[in-house]
Design a protein that fits this description.
Number of strands: 8
Strand order of the largest sheet: 1-2-3-4-5-6-7-8
Radius of gyration: 19 Å
Order of helices and strands: EHEHEHEHHEHEHHEHHEH
Length: 296
């Protein structure tokens, strides 16, 4: 039967739950667990079906204890570094599923494209393929930045998914044709770092030292958004969601309140703005863009 359901912008949204103290509000263990359950239940109730995780600290275990039942989520997992060998990578990918309380995952991503470009790249990829063949993960792929040459790596390894830093302030993935190249290879593209490290949400005084030279440009962009009555969150999400090659937009979320704000911005009417005038650097320039376009 063909579904008559109208596509929703939420279909593209993936939630990466933030556990770091600088984002998450410090709370006793019980309160923290309840806050995480509320976040995940809010996601489920809103129609979000994708959750992205990383093998850092106790984040996976906390998620595994907080899923709504039955869980509606397709979960992506990232590998640890290949520096300790491919055996360690495989063991940790299996362990991630145990910590998450899942029999299988939707997506396993090599956390850094440099691991694939190194001497053990092919051996690493073969391990991921084996995990996919055994049914532990439905899809495999890698995280990358523009500097990694993601299209070249995709042609070599033929991933299901590439997670790529891409946002309003750094539009190189779009304007240099990388998104189009990946789409032509029939690779699903997940846009990460969509909030550009929160640069549009900071005042000039709060900017990191290396970004101070961009303060006038950021101020101009914020002013143009204000004149158009568009808040920065709505603009950053609208840009990423509007990229036709992108199949998922990964938004980092620390609380149910943040998630509700993101969902509201996702459902807002797409503003009629000239996105190309809002990037920090021309598309052919790498200067100043590396920091705001990591795929983490």
């Amino acid at each position: 039967m063909i579904s008559s359901r109208t596509p929703s912008p939420i279909d593209k949204l993936a939630v990466a739950v933030v556990h770091q103290p600088e984002r998450a509000i410090p709370a006793p263990v019980g309160a923290r667990e309840e806050s995480l359950r509320l976040l995940l239940q809010t996601a489920a109730d809103s129609g979000v079906t994708r959750v992205a995780t990383r093998p850092d600290g106790d984040g996976e275990r906390w998620l595994g204890q907080a899923w709504p039942f039955p869980s509606p989520f397709q979960v992506s997992v990232c590998t640890v570094s290949v520096n300790d060998g491919v055996d360690r990578v495989e063991a940790r990918a299996r362990r991630s599923l145990e910590r998450l309380g899942l029999p299988r995952g939707d997506l396993l991503l090599v956390s850094s494209a440099s691991d694939l470009a190194g001497a053990e790249g092919r051996a690493l990829w073969d391990r991921l393929l084996a995990l996919k063949d055994r049914g532990l993960y439905r899809r495999i792929g890698f995280c990358a930045t523009i500097e990694d040459g993601p299209a070249l790596l995709a042609r070599r390894f033929q991933p299901d998914v590439v997670q790529l830093g891409c946002n309003l302030l750094d539009q190189r993935a779009q304007h240099t044709g990388v998104l189009a190249e990946l789409a032509a290879l029939e690779v699903d593209i997940h846009a990460a770092s969509v909030f550009a490290d929160g640069l549009l949400f900071m005042s000039g005084e709060a900017l990191p030292l290396e970004m101070h030279r961009h303060a006038p440009t950021l101020s101009r962009i914020r002013r143009r958004l204000a004149e158009a009555r568009v808040d920065p969150m709505q603009a950053t999400l609208a840009y990423a969601m509007g990229l036709p090659e992108v199949t998922a937009v990964v938004a980092s979320i620390a609380s149910a309140a943040e998630l509700r704000a993101v969902i509201a911005a996702t459902h807002a009417t797409t503003p009629d703005l000239d996105w190309a005038t809002m990037q920090l650097e021309p598309a052919n320039s790498a200067a100043g863009s590396r920091r705001i376009n990591s795929a983490a």
